[in-house]
Amino acid sequence: MNIAYISAGSNIGDREENLDFGARRLGERGKLLRKSSVYETEPVGYADQPWFLNQVFELETEFTPHELLAWCNEIERDGGRVRTFQNAPRTLDLDILLYGDLIISDPDLIIPHPRMTERRFVLEPLAEIAPGLLHPIEKMTIGELLIRVKENIYELAPRLFRLFLK
Question: Relative to the CA of 83, which of 8, 36, 43, 95 has its CA 20 to 30 Å away?
Fold first, then answer.
């Protein structure tokens, strides 16, 4: 069995239900070990869209990384995602952040996720469930990466991020 960390985001439709749908479906073909709290964040890249809800899941899986990517893409489609343009609004976005300590650089799959170390909306929920996890390229823990990102973000946009409370 392998451990994968998957980020989930949603900013259209019933955002909470979309995240729950993603978690349920991931659990159909693996064991959902932990999930973070839900965080609400401003969109990155294309700003003229609703705020996102973000969450991270720890999944035990027998899938290979490419099989897991295919499963995530299927879940996104089943959740109503239509890919229109980069950073477009979406019902559900599932990204493989880490898969064990593997480093993969294929045209269709890069692990660790290439922008995860820059994104507080990924690192904050990941650090909540796995702060001591080591990034296989950066050789820093997720907690350390989060501190680095927070220091940079607070200078740029202090209101970028907030914990989503029901």
Answer: 36
Which is catalytic among the residues 29, 48, 77, 95? 95
Give 147's pLDDT tier (boundaries 50, 70, 90).
Answer: very high
Quick check: is 83 catalytic? no
Tell me which amino acid residue 144 is.
Answer: E
Q: Residues 132-143: pLDDT tens digits?
A: 999 999 999 999
Q: Is 93 among the residues known to form the active site?
A: yes
Q: In this model, does residue 60 exceed pLDDT 80?
A: yes
Please say if the pLDDT value at position 155 is more than 50. Answer: no
- The C-alpha atoms of residue 40 and residue 159 are separated, in whole angstroms, by 11
Cα gap 67→81, rounded to integer Å = 19
- Per domain, the residue ranges of the chain are 2-163
Element (H, E) at 21: helix 15-28
Task: Please give the backbone phi and psi of residue 60, each rounded to the nearest 5 degrees, phi first.
Answer: -95, 125
| Residue 120 is among the residues annotated as catalytic for this protein | no
Q: Which of 93, 101, 106, 119 is catalytic?
A: 93
Does residue 53 sit in helix, strand or coil?
strand
* Known catalytic residue at 119: no
Q: What pTM was computed for the model? A: 0.89
